[in-house]
Design goal:
flat; 3-stranded parallel sheet; single chain; alpha/beta
Length: 64
């Protein structure tokens, strides 16, 4: 039995974040987007609370 991997998507731009979530859900059936975040601070809190298996992270975000 294959286990789905829980995914967190982090991007400060909402359209990019939404597109990434849709692409992952459509293209990668073994990945499940469980949460998204709009800042590194928010992402750190989510990571601490749910411990996702995979994080897709925008590498150019303001203030981080």
């Amino acid at each position: 039995m294959r286990r789905n991997l829980n995914v967190l998507v982090v991007d400060d731009e909402a359209p990019a974040r939404e597109l990434m979530c849709r692409q992952i859900e459509r293209s990668c059936p073994s990945l499940q987007v469980v949460q998204s975040a709009s800042s590194a601070k928010e992402a750190r809190a989510i990571i601490d609370s749910i411990s996702p298996d995979v994080v897709f992270l925008d590498i150019q975000m303001p203030h981080e």
